Amino acid sequence: MAHDGQTLAPNVYDAEPIPEAARAEIDRLLSSGDLFRYTAPSDAPVALLEQEFAELLGARYALAVSSCSAALFLSLKALDLPRGAKVLIPAFTFAAVPSSVVHADCEPVLVEVGANYRVDMADFAKKLPGAGAVMISHMRGHTSDMDAIMALCDAAGVPVIEDAAHSLGTVWGGRNIGTIGKVGCFSFQSYKLVNAGEGGIMVTDDPEIAARAIIMSGAYETNWKKHPGLTNSCAHWQNKLPLYNLRMQNLSAAVIRPQLPLVAERVAKGRANHDHVAALLNASAHLAVPEPLGPEERAPDSIQFNLVGDWTDAEALDFQTEAKARGVSVQVFGLSEGNARAFWNWQFLGAPPELPQTRAMLMRACDVRLPTRLTEAELDFIAAAILEAAEVVRG
Q1: Residue 266 to residue 56: CA distance in whole angstroms
Q2: What is the pLDDT of residues 56-76, one digit of tens each?
Q3: Mean pLDDT computed over every residue of the chain
Q4: Pairing mode, if any, of strands 160-163 and 133-137?
Q5: What does the alpha-carbon distance between residue 361 and residue 354 come to, in Å, rounded to a whole number?
Q6: CATH of domain 263-394
Q7: In what order do the strands lie in the sheet with 171-172?
Q8: pLDDT digits over 41-55, tens only?
Q9: CA-based angle 151:153:156, to the nearest 5?
Q10: What is the model's pLDDT at position 1?
């Protein structure tokens, strides 16, 4: 946005716009009143979304649900874990992740995360024995060492669920994130790459997991027959599992479907934006953007960086204030009141565990949104504001 040759502070809070193509389908649905996914005999928008999303990811089965949290919960229930099973999760994640574990009557075990925002593999290996499952959050799109994680989990016979809420379009060693573990879960919440306000989807190649999740998502009576390729498995589980009614409705699918062909373009733009700003921030002695691990090709729509050196809490807060005065909102995860990404705020888990690495990282890790629609001038404005704020406080 230019005004008298000046770039104004960009608005980074508006979600991705909904493509025009969605409007005709939404009008059709509204005039028909046909919003329930199981009313039509076939080809309901939710069913078509599942088919298209499975194809996009290269997975056998997809199940669209009300949120990514619902997908995580259903994944755990579909694994048929015993009540109280321990589920390893990274200590750097969003509060919805441990919440989904609690909801599934399991116990979250928090694993240390390093200054690069990725799972600390020594702590992971130490805590893996006795775990019923592992739920890896690719938090803010940062992929932990999936080769090492899968090698340890496969050897121990522990299933892996990927929380890929932030990682649609990320590739690890040539494989789509979300297809490496037993189940991958994605989000369509407003601030994600594909925006439906709310919504989620899970993918798996395992017919038993898919069938159990379909029944429990709320495919009551014989509605499961509208999920192709799973008749025998679904028939086996019908009436044997509780119904949690976490279905997606057709309007959400109508909003999501026209965005799927835009994913590749949004990923490319998001990566270019991120790398452009990262190069500028890394030129400062006070800031550092961690490098991705070798096999990872990221799909970011935000940037995270660390305050480098002996910053005090007061200086970090001053840095936030100085950036804000220049029109850019920077969030230091551990210094934002009640932040849902700071593990010590998850009071529903009881007293927080000792996780010195993760705590230290969260106290100096900064978060800035970089929507894919931003122009280069807007990206330069954001970077300049951050660099000036760091210089004012530390220069």
Answers
A1: 14
A2: 999 999 999 999 999 999 999
A3: 96
A4: parallel
A5: 13
A6: 3.90.1150.10
A7: 175-176, 171-172, 296-297
A8: 999 999 999 999 999
A9: 110
A10: 44
